[in-house]
Amino acid sequence: MTRAKRSVLPGFGLTLGLTLAYLSIVVLIPLSTVFLKSAGMGPADFARVAFSERAVAAYRLSFGAALAAAAVNAVFGMLVAWVLVRYRFIGRRFVSAIVDLPFALPTAVAGIALTALWAADGWIGQYLAPLGIKVAYTSLGVTIALVFVGLPFVVRSVEPVLEDVGRDLEEAAASLGAGRFTIFRRVILPAIGPALLTGFALAFARGVGEYGSVIFIAGNLPYKTEIAPLLIVTQLEQYDYAGATAIATVMLLLAFAMLLAVNLTQVWRRRRMER
Amino acid sequence: MGITVTGVAKTFGSFAALHGIDLDAQPGEFLALLGPSGSGKTTLLRIIAGLEFPDAGTVAFDNEDVTGRPVSERGVGFVFQQYALFRHMTIADNIAFGLTVRPRRDRPAKAEIARRVDELLDLVQLPGLGGRYPAQLSGGQRQRVALARALAVEPRFLLLDEPFGALDAKVRKDLRRWLRGLHDRLGLTSIFVTHDQEEALELADRVVVMDHGVIEQVAPPADIYDRPASAFVFGFVGESNCLPVTVRAGRAWHHDIDLGAAEAPDGPANAWFRPHDVVADDTGIPATVLLARPKNGLTRIEAQVAGIDKPFEADLATAPAVGATVHLRPFRFRIFPA
Predict the structure, then answer these.
(1) Does domain B239-337 have CATH number 2.40.50.140?
(2) Mind telling me which residue stretches traverse the membrane in this protein (chain A) (predicted)?
(3) Do A97 and A65 fall within a single domain?
(4) Is the confidence at residue A273, as pLDDT, over 80?
(5) pLDDT for A31 beyond 70
(6) What is the DSSP-derived secondary structure letter of residue B105?
(7) Which domain holds residue A93?
(8) How far does the CA of residue A182 sit from the closest CA of chain B (Å)?
(9) What is the CATH architecture of B3-232?
(10) Cross-chain Cβ contact B153/A177 below 8 Å
C-alpha cells in the first residue's frame, strides 16, 4: 500500500480538479465546439472555405500585422518599462496609469479615435497625405490599431523583471569595462528576455484576435485590408456557421502553434539555466 | 601613489553624504571604511570607483586625476554586497566577461581567455565549477566568483562594498581570512566597506572610521581600539561606558570621587572606558548590579549608576550577587568633551 506524499500545502487534488474544470468550461469546451462545428463539413469543403484566396489574404494580414505590432511594442514597451522602473520623476504614476488605458477603453472607441487621427483629413493623417503616406484604410492602419491594444502587455510583463535586474548588475558590467550598448545586449536583454518574449506573445495573441479597434481603421476591403476575425463575422452574418468555424479553426491552430513555440523557447531557456 | 582623495563632498538632494573628505591609500595597503549606516562610507567607495561623481574635490590614482572618468575607464575591480553575478551566464562566462567585452584588438584569444578563467577559478578555490550557473552555488562561492570576475581584468585597485554582508557568520569568518591571505599574495591596493568593526579590525592595515559624512579617525586597528580619536570612535569600536565627570586641575572627578589624572582643560567632560578596564574597589563609583554572567573567565556585570541611563558594563574577577551594590573604578579611561 502506498501512502500519498504529505505536504503542508493543502488540497492539491481539489485545487487541480477545480483548475481543470474551470479551464474546461471557460476555455476548452467553447474552443472544441469550434472544431466540432467545422468538422461537420467535408475536408474538401473545409479546404475550399478555409483556404480560399480571400481567407488566406485575411490570415496574412491578421498574423502579419499582429507580428509587426507586437515587434514594435516589444521595442517601445521595453523602453516605457525601462523609464518607469529606472527613473523617479513627477507624474510617473500618471504615465503608468496611461499605459493601462488600452486595457480599459472599449476597443471600438479606440478604433474610431484612431481613424479620426489617421484618416487623410485627420489630425495626423493630413500631414502624411501630401507625402503619399496613407494610414487609415491600409494594413499600416491595422498595425497601428494593434500597436495601441498590445502596448500594456509588453510593459506590464517586462516591468517587474526589470525591477528585479537591479542597478548593481549594470554597474558591475560597467566596472568591468563594458559600454552602454554592450551592457544592454549582454546583461539586460538576456535577463529580461523571457519576460519580453511573454509580453510579445501576449501582445501578438491579442492582436490576432482583435476586432473592435481594427474594423474602423481597416476599411475592410476584401483581399487588402480585411482581417480574419472580420471575415468570420461576415460569414456569420450570412448564416454560414460552418464557414465561419472553418476559418476560426485555422486561426486557432496557427495561434496555438505560435504560442506553443514561445512557451517551448522559455522552457528550453530555463532548463539551460537549471535553477 | 596609490589612491588619493582630496576634499571630496557629495550631496543627495538635501542630504549631505560627504563633507570634504581627504584620504589616501598606500600601494599594497588594505584599507577598511568603517561606520554606521548613513555615515557616507559606501558613497565614498562608489566615488572612488567612479559609480558616483563628487560635487567637489578630486580622486587621483597613482597621482593621475581620474575624477571625471566613468567606472568603465578607471580600471578598478568592484565587488558588490549582493554579488551582482550575471545569472544567465555560466561561472566561466561571468569571470571572462571583462575580457570578452574588450574591443577586438585588445581582446585575448579564446584559448587565452579560457586559460585565464581556469587560473582564476583555481585562485578562488572553485576549480572545475566553470560550467555551473550562479544559482547553483552557495553565497560564499558566489562572492568568490564575483571576486574572480573583478580580478580577471587585472584592475589597479580592488574595491569591495560590504563583501561579506550577505553571508552567514561562519562563512563570513572563513572568507575574510581567505581574502586577507589573497590580498597579501596579490599585493593589490584594496579598500573595503564594512559596518562590522570586528571585520575591519581583523582584516585591514588601516581603518578609516566615518560618521555623518566625515572621517573621525584613520589609524591601524590597534590604535583605533586603544587610542580612539573621538568619543564617537570610542563608542563605535568595541564595548564602552561613558561617565560624566568634571575636570579640575588635571584630575577627573565624578561628583566627589577622584578618578585620576586627566589631560584636559577644566570643566565638564565625559570619561570613556572599556568594561575590561574596570575594577571593584571600595573607593569607586557605587552601582547596583542588574545582571551577572560568566564571560571569558571573568564575570560580566551590568550595573546601574545613579543618574546615568545606560547601565555600566564591567568585567570583574569576583561574581557579585544581583541586586548588591558594587563600587566600580575605571583604571584606564579617556576624556572627551561632553
Answers:
(1) yes
(2) 12-36, 56-85, 97-120, 135-155, 187-205, 241-265
(3) yes
(4) no
(5) yes
(6) G
(7) 42-274
(8) 7
(9) 3-Layer(aba) Sandwich (3.40)
(10) yes
- pTM for the full model? 0.80
If asked whether residues A28 and A56 sit together in one domain, one would say: no
Q: What percent of chain A has pLDDT over 90?
A: 21
Query: A226 lies in a domain?
Result: yes
Q: Which of B49, B88, B97 sits opposite A191 (nearest CB)?
A: B88
Among A3-17, A87-101, B82-96, the minimum mean pLDDT is found in A3-17
Domain boundaries along the sequence of chain B? 3-232, 239-337
CA of B137 vs chain A CAs: smallest distance (Å): 10
pLDDT below 70 — which residues of chain B? none
Task: Let me know whether A164 and A269 are in one domain.
Answer: yes
CA separation for the pair A241, A130 (Å, rounded): 44
> Does one domain contain both A147 and A255?
yes
* A5 assigned to some structural domain: no
Q: How confident is the model at residue A11 (pLDDT cuts 50, 70, 90)?
A: confident
C-alpha cell read off for B266: 577644566
DSSP H/E element including B194: strand B189-194
Put simply, whether A164 touches B (Cβ < 8 Å) is: no
What is the reported pLDDT for A274? 56
CA distance A36 to chain B (A): 45
- Burial of B71: CB neighbours in 10 Å, binned 0-12, 13-18, 19+: buried
CATH number of the CATH domain containing A183: 1.10.3720.10
DSSP letter for each residue of A22-55: HHIIIIIHHHHHHHHHHHTS-HHHHHHHHTSHHH
B282 CB-near residues (< 8 Å, 6+ apart): B327
Cβ contact (<8 Å) for B72 and A274?
A: no
